[in-house]
Amino acid sequence: MADTAPPAKHNRFDDEAKNWDVCASNPTTVQSSRLFFEAIQSRFPSLAQGQEKSKRALEIGCGTGLLSMHLAPLLGEYVAFDPSQGMIDVLKTKIKDMPQVKPVAELLEDPETPHLSGKPVDYAFSHLTLHHIPDMFASIQCLAATLAPGGHIVLSDFEASSTSEDFHPKHKHHDVERHGVVGSEIEGMLQKAGFKNVKVEHSFDLPKKKEDGSEGNFPFLIATGTK
Q1: In this structure, what are the phi and psi dihedrals at residue 202, rounded to the nearest 5 degrees?
Q2: Where are any strands of DSSP class E within the chain?
Q3: The domain containing residue 144 runs over which residues?
């Protein structure tokens, strides 16, 4: 399925894909993906207990699948979208024995994409992606349209604060749309998109070395809602 997608535009993530999973060079995404998975498990016990293996899910901004590889074994089908071909190529090397994972090298902008086979999903996940998206509400609306009634949206990103600009080194600021997300804004967008039982809450704190060598501590939010 993914091989029919047009080539994705080259970006810095293509260049970083090869070493993306190496904790020594990329501790932020490796550690935060694990912590987000733990946060998901605590909020969705039926998923954590392996009771959702007939369900379908998608993830936007999947990268090399650091989160996908945790979640996909708990689900029946997992469509992993990322606009970086380099990231998707790395993911493909991991899933030879995981036919439920369908990697797609594109940005999900159309809920009618053929990669979803015209069928709704039960979960829509995103981690460390919202701060890169120019129009967050449009993306949330798109995810809402992919979900079946009763389906869940589960979003994660670092919280905007007086120090959140230090999350990325300055040479990466050019492709960052916002330095963290604001909980009340995400909550309002989810409600406006029609989600019920919306919750936006603290998920975990992530220690991270800043560009000047000092240690920072960045809070992450988890946002959930039911269609």
Answers
A1: -65, 135
A2: 56-60, 77-81, 101-104, 121-127, 147-158, 196-209, 215-226
A3: 2-226
Biggest CA-to-CA distance, the chain: 49
Residue identified by tokens 């901004």 is 61
One-letter amino acid identity for 147?
Answer: L
Question: What does 88-119 look like in DSSP terms, one character per residue?
Answer: HHHHHHH-TT-TTEEEE-S----TT-GGGTT-
Question: Could you report the per-residue pLDDT of 13-50, keeping only the tens digit for each?
Answer: 555 555 555 544 456 788 999 999 999 999 999 999 99
Q: How confident is the model at residue 133 (pLDDT cuts 50, 70, 90)?
A: very high
CATH code of residue 68? 3.40.50.150
Tell me how many domains the chain contains. 1
Alpha carbon distance 82, 107 (integer Å): 6
